[in-house]
Amino acid sequence: MLKGIPQILSPELLKVLCEMGHSDQIVLSDGNFPAESMGKDCIVIRCDGHGVPELLDAILTIFPLDTYVEKSVNLMEVVPGDTVETPIWDTYKEIVSKYDSRGGATVANIERFDFYDEAKKAYAIVATGEKALYANVILQKGVVVE
């Protein structure tokens, strides 16, 4: 065990977060996301039994968001005509605001198939058991300045 590291972050996930460099992206996917087929060319980490908000909060305690881009957090946009509500997005913005002074202003929505294209280029995909719909998020890594 380590001090100061959220216990939800497995050794495999910690290793990946450490390996990632500036501008690399990681996807936190909900339970419906096709993580294995999207992640054929990247690392897929299983975190079944955990939700995206708790992982997002833990990751952002040690993961700097990219400040060289306007939007370093991207969500999958609701498909036009779909009547799904997305209250989880407000939760994400609250979590991001705890760790990044830009708050919700650094969060964007991207079209579903554009999101899939970005996910295919990600360094890693974290497959969760999140049940909320449209709960997928891409984080772009920044630099540690201290």
Automatic annotation (TrEMBL):
Keywords carried by this UniProt record: Isomerase
Keyword Cell membrane tagged: no
Any one Gene Ontology molecular-function term assigned to this protein's record: L-fucose mutarotase activity
One Pfam family of this chain: RbsD_FucU
Catalysis: reaction(s): beta-D-ribopyranose = beta-D-ribofuranose; alpha-L-fucose = beta-L-fucose
Record carries keyword Isomerase: yes
Domain of life (superkingdom): Bacteria
Gene3D superfamilies with a match to the protein in the record: RbsD-like domain (3.40.1650.10)
The protein, known as: Fucose isomerase
Organism: Romboutsia weinsteinii
